[in-house]
Amino acid sequence: MKQIILTGDRPTGRLHVGHYVGSLKERVELQESGLYDEIYIMIADAQALTDNAEHPEKVRQNIMNVALDYLGVGIDPEKSTIFIQSMVPELTELTFYYMNLVTVSRVQRNPTVKSEIQQRGFETSIPVGFFCYPISQAADITAFHATKVPVGEDQLPMLEQCKEIVAKFNSVYGETLTEPDIVLPGNKACLRLPGIDGKAKMSKSLGNCIYLSDEPEEIKKKIMSMYTDPNHIRVEDPGTVEGNPVFTYLDAFCRPEYFEEFLPDYKSLDELKDHYRRGGLGDVKIKKFLNNVMQEELRPIRERRKSWEARLPEVYELLKAGSEKAERKAAETLKEVKHAMRIDYFDDGNLLKS
Ligand code: TRP
């Protein structure tokens, strides 16, 4: 069986370091592993519109931002096909057929949908399109016969729902669709990176993000203002490492060689944590170290991003070619789907057959 990756992000803002450790980094590793026959990375503008119907301009503007973020982290257009969701209308048609295989109550139970409805204050006025986005996401995944879907942990319920749709479709219409698996980062600290304010999630609306495109000074300012252990007041005080964002970031970003380079008094993160727990280690010292680490990690991304930003017509061309390629693939799958459902009436005069 072919090994195929499909994944994507909504273009509602620039991507941040939470996206990076939560999934983008994994995607680049999978891309470089050479184990995949096809890789599709989708800019999910149609999904972004499901809760931004009044702000198409915002979605439009962020398409390039997300494309540049992808190219910045090392998604290689020679190896991965980057495309724009709405440029593949077959996805919408698949969604329409899959909608009949899912109940309203099943979508209502989807934990991600539930929490998003709350966050957006949609309780009494859920747009139908928004409500259906898990079904459209199943269309995105199955249209490419994806076997692997590297995404953030918050997307697990979407993958569960997709698998159910695949099982239902195959049992009703015959074996047609491919069941996908989620790929999550192995490092626990990467699963859900907290905001710089210590809130559970890094999110644009909370204003607690470090963006992949942030300049060095901004990164430094954000890190030096980070929330730490509120009970660690004087340097001598014992501190808590668990749930302390500064350490979570180090868990997510630090490589062993950074100690020798930036903090040679310590050999490892464990040693640094032990000292913090004992007391006698100030927050400023750790933040300075974290800043050095993050600067090292983000510099190549920002520079690569800038080099693409200077060649926007090339990015435009690769999105266009990527979208055409993605459409060809999705059209094939749509054909298979319609054949399985026996609604391919005009193929080989099928409507005349019993
Ligand atoms: N829901 C994803 C997000 O919020 C975007 C997305 C749309 C996606 N379709 C997908 C992710 C299919 C993986 C597979 O960013």
Name a few traits of the molecule.
single chain, 354 residues, 2 domains, three-stranded parallel beta sheet, 16 helices, binds tryptophan
Sequence-ordered SSE layout with sheet pairings:
Blueprint: E1 4-9, H1 17-33, E2 38-43, H2 45-49, H3 56-73, E3 81-84, H4 90-98, H5 104-109, H6 111-119, H7 128-131, H8 133-143, E4 148-150, H9 156-173, E5 181-183, H10 188-191, H11 216-224, H12 245-253, H13 257-262, H14 269-278, H15 283-309, H16 312-340
Parallel strand pairs: 1-2, 2-3, 4-5
Strand order of the largest sheet: 1-2-3
Bound molecules: tryptophan
Major β-sheet annotation: 3 strands, parallel
Total individual domains: 2
**Poorly predicted spans:** none
Number of helices: 16
Summarize the structure.
With 354 residues, this protein is mostly helical.
Question: Any overview of this molecule?
Answer:
The protein has 354 residues and is mainly alpha-helical. The protein is built from 16 helices and 5 strands. Strand 1, helix 1 and strand 2 form a beta-alpha-beta unit. The longest helix is centred in the last third of the chain and has 29 residues. The structure holds tryptophan. The site of tryptophan has 13 residues, from strand 1 and helix 8.
